[in-house]
């Protein structure tokens, strides 16, 4: 029965539309836009039969900031700060995707030291992002303490990351043709000190949370997404790797620096929330490996290309696409330029958007608490979904 | 003056006792709120409340002042009578639960022969208040929370009863003071030694009955925002809060009396032993809350039906068997 | 075999709970990491890499003036359009001066006509719009912008965030009333 036909004017378009397919004996519940589990302004409309989720439908757009449009009215280098704000969790990944697209378009050669710096800072940023997710996810599951421990480490990492990028959250330190600041001696030393400390912390995380029977029972077998489903929705990142798809842009696109380092793509085959969880935990370790090796191999040299673009630089005509492996999946930037200072079109491929699309299917038939756990295990950053 | 003499001394006794209980509960809620926040803080390596008074010691008072000062807000379409009855119903039965509590050799408000039964009976009313709150607030989160409470509390009452019965059988009494009397001063003379399984079951059920983490499903924050008290503001919420902490004290008190030798301890028996044990249990409550994730609803019931009830039943049968044999 | 595992598993599961309690218990006794903000501050070696509101660098020869040459490049580079720079006006040449100049030129002498001083009279950064991206700092040709390390940029009104960067430089030129008025109209 249509909601409006019943003479009820409550709810908005989404609710009323949702009501159409609802069964008589079910309840429509709005999780969000302000809800503790959505970590932002995502809204999920669920149809509940008791505690069971019959349908779950995410509603987007509460945090739409028109980043793609802004890309058309700002010069290419002016758009870099925007990229740091698309995903507050992994800002440098977006930085890299965008400057990479511009560099590919213009055929710029980035100095080697700058490439190493990009690798190091991006990986540190990946760890901070995963720590943020880890804390928030355990919070979703009702454990309040882990987030504090995670933030303890995260703050130290942010202190470190602040040295080359100057900011603690919305980093935007990559420039077209390099990076804006060189790594200081102090940075290198602090990171060297921090890596073993972080390695010691990870077993503590494992004992406190990963091995905890309550958590394992809550995640194992919950929200199973098989590889086929991931492909259908374009799911990437740790979510896809948790389903046995060993796809990592860093490896698949043969990123120059990563190629020479010894690290593995973390993959699990179970496809449940626990697998996604474990993939991220493994990735933190791998990121530490990458940072350690990259620091050891850091070459000397300039950090910015010699004739890096000036303010009124005009990009050549054409299009380019560049993707990097973000903390949440494949970050892609498709840049179309008609030869002006501004891009003609900037298309941002957000991993969270694709990952969220799979949510409706994954959450169907689960218990409400599981639906929340699945939502958390996708590691969504809402501003990134809406862009 | 003659009419004073007409008042039965029993009544005066009860009235004084009730007043004392209220003061006791009030103070303990404040202390517990502080202890919980401090404990949580230190576990998470932060100071917890720190600004109000030295080391934030006045923070609970400030919180109470804030809660009292807030506007009471009845949501539209809520049933106002039921809505406001619920918080009251949450607090007052809890106060009654302190009546048969054996704080010390003579420090009991009223010796009740069926003290244990009284506590179990009145504890059941708490469920009613939660259910009313969830139902009357006309909120879907509240409703879900209420539904969870009912199934949770009803389910966990069974193993709780079975665990308590073991002790009652063993000691042949439902009077808490008698049960305490039956235990010795030294830890190995306490009931926890003869009934370790019952103690564990009782403890788990206590967590569930008081809606404490990891069994805090009715108010599961990340799923149901605040569950049954989503719509309550000000002191309405404050009352639920008080009831939760008072319930914790009751449960710890009963647990102490049943399993940990009550007021008895090495050296001089007295109220202090009782309080020390109660505080130790409360600390455990707080510690556990800030350590574990929340269980899922079906798991919660599974733990109950598949583990606790069979175990409790076996334990009870075993106890009865052993008592018959020896 | 599976029977034994079935029995052992719950024990292991329960043990994981004890391990969890032990970890939180150990952390309970560890020192706290909180910095009690108003009474304590984070160590300065953290703040000196922090990007605070932008500031002008003093002129190498005259510390009462800023190094800015009012070239306006930063204005164009800023993605948030939060920089307002107004150049010093060209000095007004009176007819008599003009005459003397022309006479001198007629005599074939080198004349130095007064040109607009290459200096800003107004340099305002709207900090409420600034994204601290550093585009201006990098774009400035004479490298006369830096980030300050001021952590506590607070204010009670929007206008409080219109940072006038020339305030530390008393020697800089003053704007003419018309320029101020034009700015206020905006
Ligand atoms: S830091 Fe960026 S936003 Fe701020 S004034 Fe400079 S260019 Fe503009
Ligand atoms: S600050 Fe630098 S870029 Fe901006 S006007 Fe002055 S000299 Fe030019």
From TrEMBL, chain A:
InterPro entries reported for this sequence: NADH_Q_OxRdtase_suD (IPR001135), NDH1_su_D/H (IPR022885), NiFe-Hase_large (IPR029014)
Domain of life of the source: Bacteria
Location of the protein in the cell: Cell membrane
Transport in keyword set: yes
Record keyword Protease present: no
Protein EC: 7.1.1.-
Uppermost EC category: translocase
Residues in NADH-quinone oxidoreductase subunit D domain copies: 140-387
GO cellular component, one term: plasma membrane
GO terms assigned for molecular function: NAD binding; NADH dehydrogenase (quinone) (non-electrogenic) activity; quinone binding
Keywords, ordered alphabetically: Cell membrane, Membrane, NAD, Quinone, Translocase, Transport, Ubiquinone
Membrane topology summary: Peripheral membrane protein
Family: Belongs to the complex I 49 kDa subunit family.
Oligomer status and interactors: NDH-1 is composed of 14 different subunits. Subunits NuoB, C, D, E, F, and G constitute the peripheral sector of the complex.
UniProt cross-references to PANTHER family, sorted A to Z: NADH DEHYDROGENASE [UBIQUINONE] IRON-SULFUR PROTEIN 2, MITOCHONDRIAL, NADH-UBIQUINONE OXIDOREDUCTASE 49 KDA SUBUNIT
Name used for this protein in its record: NADH-quinone oxidoreductase subunit D
Species whose genome carries this gene: Telmatospirillum siberiense
From TrEMBL, chain B:
Protein name (Swiss-Prot/TrEMBL): NADH-quinone oxidoreductase subunit H
Organism of this sequence: Telmatospirillum siberiense
One Pfam family in the UniProt entry: NADHdh
Xref: NCBIfam families: PRK06076.1-2 (NF004741)
Enzyme category, top tier: translocase
Compartments (UniProt record): Cell membrane; Membrane
Family to which the UniProt record says this protein belongs: Belongs to the complex I subunit 1 family.
GO biological process: aerobic respiration
Single annotated GO MF: NADH dehydrogenase activity
Membrane topology, record value: Multi-pass membrane protein
PANTHER family in the record: NADH DEHYDROGENASE SUBUNIT 1 (PTHR11432), NADH-UBIQUINONE OXIDOREDUCTASE CHAIN 1 (PTHR11432:SF3)
Catalytic activity entry: a quinone + NADH + 5 H(+)(in) = a quinol + NAD(+) + 4 H(+)(out)
Documented EC number(s): 7.1.1.-
GO CC terms of this entry: plasma membrane
Subunit architecture: NDH-1 is composed of 14 different subunits. Subunits NuoA, H, J, K, L, M, N constitute the membrane sector of the complex.
Membrane-traversing stretches: 12-35, 81-100, 112-133, 154-170, 190-208, 245-265, 271-292, 304-323
Top-level taxon of origin: Bacteria
Keywords for this protein: Cell membrane, Membrane, NAD, Quinone, Translocase, Transmembrane, Transmembrane helix, Ubiquinone
Described function: NDH-1 shuttles electrons from NADH, via FMN and iron-sulfur (Fe-S) centers, to quinones in the respiratory chain. The immediate electron acceptor for the enzyme in this species is believed to be ubiquinone. Couples the redox reaction to proton translocation (for every two electrons transferred, four hydrogen ions are translocated across the cytoplasmic membrane), and thus conserves the redox energy in a proton gradient. This subunit may bind ubiquinone.
Automatic annotation (TrEMBL), chain C:
Keywords, comma-separated and alphabetical: 4Fe-4S, Cell membrane, Iron, Iron-sulfur, Membrane, Metal-binding, NAD, Quinone, Repeat, Translocase, Ubiquinone
Pfam family, one: Fer4_9
Highest taxon listed in the record's lineage: Bacteria
GO molecular function, one term: oxidoreductase activity, acting on NAD(P)H
InterPro entries registered for this protein in UniProt: 4Fe4S_Fe-S-bd, 4Fe4S_Fe_S_CS, NADH_quinone_OxRdtase_chainI
Protein name: 4Fe-4S ferredoxin
Protein's UniProt keywords contain Metal-binding: yes
Gene Ontology cellular component annotations, sorted alphabetically: membrane
Domain 4Fe-4S ferredoxin-type: start-end pairs: 58-88, 120-150
């Amino acid at each position: 029965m249509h909601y409006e036909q019943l003479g009820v004017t409550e709810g908005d378009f989404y609710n009323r539309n949702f009501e159409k397919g609802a069964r008589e004996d079910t309840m429509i519940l709005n999780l969000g836009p302000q809800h503790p589990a959505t970590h932002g302004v995502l809204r999920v409309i669920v149809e509940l039969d008791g505690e069971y989720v019959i349908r779950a439908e995410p509603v987007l757009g509460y945090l739409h900031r028109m980043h793609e449009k802004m890309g058309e009215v700002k010069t290419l280098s002016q758009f870099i700060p925007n990229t740091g704000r698309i995903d507050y969790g992994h800002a440098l990944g977006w930085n890299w995707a965008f400057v990479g697209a511009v560099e590919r378009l213009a055929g710029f050669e980035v100095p080697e030291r700058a490439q190493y710096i990009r690798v190091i800072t991006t990986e540190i940023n990946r760890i901070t992002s995963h720590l943020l997710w880890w804390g928030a996810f355990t919070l979703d599951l009702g454990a309040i303490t882990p987030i504090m421990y995670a933030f303890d480490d995260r703050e130290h990492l942010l202190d470190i990351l602040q040295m080359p990028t100057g900011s603690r959250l919305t980093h935007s330190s990559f420039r077209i043709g390099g990076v804006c600041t060189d790594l200081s001696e102090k940075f290198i030393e602090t990171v060297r000190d921090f890596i073993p400390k972080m390695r010691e912390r990870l077993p503590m995380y494992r004992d406190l949370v990963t091995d905890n029977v309550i958590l394992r029972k809550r995640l194992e077998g919950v929200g199973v997404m098989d590889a086929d489903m991931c492909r259908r929705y374009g799911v990437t990142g740790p979510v896809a790797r948790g389903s046995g798809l060993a796809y990592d842009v860093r490896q698949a696109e043969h990123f120059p620096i990563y190629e020479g380092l010894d690290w593995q793509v973390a993959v699990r085959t179970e496809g449940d929330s626990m697998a996604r969880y474990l993939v991220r935990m493994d990735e933190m370790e791998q990121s530490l490996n990458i940072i350690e090796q990259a620091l050891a191999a850091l070459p000397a040299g300039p950090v910015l290309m010699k004739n890096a673009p000036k303010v009124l630089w005009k990009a050549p005509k054409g299009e380019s696409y560049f993707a990097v492996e973000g903390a949440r999946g494949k970050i892609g930037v498709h840049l179309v330029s008609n030869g002006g200072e501004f891009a003609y079109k900037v298309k941002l491929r957000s991993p969270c958007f694709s990952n969220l699309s799979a949510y409706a299917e994954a959450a169907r038939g689960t218990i409400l608490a599981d639906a929340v756990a699945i939502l958390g295990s996708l590691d969504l950053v809402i501003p990134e979904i809406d862009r | 003056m003659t009419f004073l003499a007409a008042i039965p001394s029993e009544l005066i006794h009860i009235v004084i006792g009730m007043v004392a209980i209220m003061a006791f509960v009030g103070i303990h809620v404040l202390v517990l709120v502080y202890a919980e926040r401090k404990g949580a803080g230190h576990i998470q390596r932060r100071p917890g409340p720190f600004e109000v008074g030295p080391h934030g010691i006045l923070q609970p008072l400030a919180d109470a002042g804030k809660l009292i000062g807030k506007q009471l807000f009845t949501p539209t379409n809520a049933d106002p009578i039921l809505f406001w009855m619920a918080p009251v119903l949450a607090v007052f039965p809890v106060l009654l639960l302190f009546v048969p509590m054996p704080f010390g050799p003579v420090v009991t408000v009223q010796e009740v022969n069926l003290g244990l039964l009284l506590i179990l009976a009145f504890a059941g009313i708490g469920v009613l208040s939660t259910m009313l709150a969830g139902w009357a607030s006309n909120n879907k989160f509240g409703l879900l929370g209420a539904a969870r409470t009912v199934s949770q509390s009803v389910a966990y009452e069974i193993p709780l009863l079975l665990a308590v019965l073991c002790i009652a059988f063993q000691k042949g009494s439902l009077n808490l003071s008698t049960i305490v009397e039956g235990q010795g001063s030294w830890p190995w003379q306490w009931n926890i030694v003869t009934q370790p399984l019952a103690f564990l079951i009782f403890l788990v059920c206590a967590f569930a009955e008081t809606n404490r983490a990891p069994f805090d499903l009715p108010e599961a924050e990340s799923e149901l925002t605040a569950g049954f008290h989503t719509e309550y503001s000000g002191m309405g919420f404050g009352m639920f809060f008080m009831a939760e902490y008072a319930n914790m004290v009751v449960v710890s008190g009963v647990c102490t009396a049943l399993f940990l030798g009550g007021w008895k301890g090495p050296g001089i028996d007295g109220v202090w032993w009782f309080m020390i044990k109660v505080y130790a249990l409360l600390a455990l409550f707080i510690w556990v809350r800030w350590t574990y994730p929340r269980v899922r609803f079906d798991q919660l019931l599974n733990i109950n039906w598949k583990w606790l009830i069979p175990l409790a039943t076996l334990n009870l049968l075993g106890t009865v068997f052993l008592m018959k044999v020896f | 075999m599976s029977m034994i595992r079935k029995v052992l598993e719950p024990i292991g599961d329960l043990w994981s709970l004890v391990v969890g309690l032990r970890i939180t218990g150990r952390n309970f006794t560890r020192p706290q990491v909180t910095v009690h903000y108003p009474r304590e501050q984070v160590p300065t070696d953290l703040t000196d890499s922090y990007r605070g509101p932008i500031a002008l660098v003093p002129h190498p020869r005259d510390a009462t003036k800023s190094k800015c040459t009012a070239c306006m490049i930063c204005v164009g580079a800023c993605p948030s359009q939060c920089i307002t720079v107004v150049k010093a006006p060209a000095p007004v040449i009176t007819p008599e001066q003009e005459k003397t100049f022309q006479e001198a030129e007629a005599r074939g002498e080198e004349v130095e006509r007064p040109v607009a001083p290459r200096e800003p009279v107004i340099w305002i950064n709207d900090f409420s719009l600034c994204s601290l991206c550093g585009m201006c700092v990098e774009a400035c040709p004479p490298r006369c912008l830096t980030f300050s390390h001021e952590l506590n940029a607070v204010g009670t009104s929007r206008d409080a965030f219109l940072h006038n960067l020339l305030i530390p430089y008393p020697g800089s030129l003053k704007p003419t009333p018309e320029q101020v008025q034009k700015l206020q109209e905006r």
